């Protein structure tokens, strides 16, 4: 059920503002705001409205890598390339992506200590079986290129987080 409120947008006081919970494209945004700028009756038409849809703040995905690769062998280019490529794959601006690399971990996989990675990609929405295949290829490629980790030694957990379980800037994503 929409709730009518008041607001001035870019110096214009709209006729109506309606807010309601709306999932859009699989994202878990709680509220979208529909701003009715004006209502008029053009010739040969019933009433029509000029509308403005205002989205809530975007979500912030987190990509984390735990690896036994030494810190001295982690190039800065991995951070910038992972940020750029994940932003594109997740359809998010780069400014929303957090990349956290944790090197020098004591790790063994399949009975040896060859380079290995245990990763996680967490996001509010945009996590699905189809997209996870794409993300896996992207992440395995990045870690092989920059850290020398073979794709068969790169394990990735994907987590679709409910917005109410993510906090930022003194608030949560509702």
UniProtKB/TrEMBL annotation:
Database matches in InterPro entries: Macrophage_inhib_fac (IPR001398), Macrophage_inhib_fac_CS (IPR019829), Tautomerase/MIF_sf (IPR014347)
Record organism: Chanos chanos (Milkfish)
Keywords from the UniProt entry: Cytokine, Isomerase, Secreted
Similarity section: Belongs to the MIF family.
Catalytic activity, reaction form: 3-phenylpyruvate = enol-phenylpyruvate; L-dopachrome = 5,6-dihydroxyindole-2-carboxylate
EC assignment: 5.3.2.1, 5.3.3.12
Protein name: Macrophage migration inhibitory factor
Organism classification: Eukaryota, Metazoa, Chordata, Craniata, Vertebrata
Keyword Coiled coil: no
